[in-house]
Amino acid sequence: MAAYETSRAAPFGAISIFRFVQSLGEATTRFSAWNDARVTRKALSKLTDRELDDIGLCRGDVDLIGR
């Protein structure tokens, strides 16, 4: 009976490509979170002080959203 080795080393550059793709995905996630916070801050900044008070925020809290 012949023995067959099933574990092989990854091809040259495969790990580097994997890490690049992984970091690209992380950058996309960070950008998406930043953009969501930006859109939220922009929408909240358009509200009046009375509307902000109705939802329990003040004008100074708008800058803290998303940090």
From TrEMBL:
Domain YjiS-like: 30-62
One Pfam assignment: YjiS-like
Protein name: DUF1127 domain-containing protein
Originating organism: Fuscibacter oryzae
